[in-house]
Amino acid sequence: MPAPKPGAPVRGSSTGRPVMAALDLFGRRWNLRIVWELREDTLGFRALQQRCDGMSSSVLRQRLTELLDARVVEQQPDAAYRLTELGRGAYQALRPLMRWSGEWAAALAGEEDHR
Amino acid sequence: MPAPKPGAPVRGSSTGRPVMAALDLFGRRWNLRIVWELREDTLGFRALQQRCDGMSSSVLRQRLTELLDARVVEQQPDAAYRLTELGRGAYQALRPLMRWSGEWAAALAGEEDHR
DNA sequence: GCGCACCGCTTCGGAAACAGAATCGCCGTC
DNA sequence: GACGGCGATTCTGTTTCCGAAGCGGTGCGC
User: Fold this and answer.
1) Which of A63, A79, B14, B43 has the fewest CB atoms within 10 Å of its CB?
2) What is the pLDDT of residue A115?
3) Å between A19 CA and C25 C1'?
4) Of A6, A70, A99, which has the smallest distance from its Cβ to B93's Cβ?
């Protein structure tokens, strides 16, 4: 299972269009979450695992190698992980989604009311 | 596997914070892609399946029930699927990510050059 | 009425991804 | 030199996904 990259065919699309590579990368479980958790902290392996409610270490390693490969995350000399410049851009791109989740919660709660 | 909803515990987080529910919902394979494909068309089941490079019908059905449940997608009387108001909001929230994928592609391509 | 094509949707066996725990080597500290 | 914490790896069992076949329903030509 190679890390998705723009320009190469990815799971679910053979065109290699960047957007498809991004959809594959972030459509893999935990990848969105990892970017989210690293948004303003640099975390070690185990600390990151804790933040993700104890996701399995094997999958965390797998995801980290994918994100490292995608230049979204980098590893410091002391082995802690943090977002690259590119990764911070991805987080910025994710922020509207976070804002949307608030509207989403409100809408579902409102609909709960008049039922 | 229940569809994630804000206010309820989800995979990877027990807090029920909306953002965690959103990260779970969109961190599931194909969900980002489905919203993307429905961004400006209303599509039938099989048409949608084609757009997603022939994803398996069983998983498509599973994802659609999740998205229907989350009020992100709705079904017309003629059974075709389209984004709800909420779903269009989600797509809008996703657009920066699409823009980012372009920068991402450029950055990776540039690094390819001086190597 | 009958065959046919298309549709949304379901079922099922095999393949791939994930979870979870045990374990390794590597530092520092005491 | 025993200990604890760390990143990382390996292994086994479960969950999820894939892919193909097939279901019932609907519309159409004949």
Assistant:
1) A79
2) 57
3) 40
4) A99
The answer to whether the beta carbon of residue B45 comes closer than 7 angstroms to any atom of strand C is yes
Q: Write out the two tokens for A9.
A: 């065919």
Question: Does the domain at residues A18-113 carry the CATH identifier 3.90.79.10?
Answer: no
- Fold for B18-110, please state it: Arc Repressor Mutant, subunit A (1.10.10)
SS3 A29: coil
Do the chains contact at B93 and A100, CB–CB below 8 Å?
A: yes
Round to whole Å and give the CA distance between B8 and A61: 28
Q: How many helices (H) and strands (E) does chain A have?
A: 5, 2
Token pair 């229940």 in the structure block, residue = B2
- Using the predicted structure, report yes or no on whether residue A114 has a pLDDT greater than 70: no
The DSSP code for B75 is: E
Q: Chain C positions under 7 Å from a protein CB?
A: 6-12, 16-22
What pLDDT, on the 0 to 100 scale, is given for residue B99?
A: 93
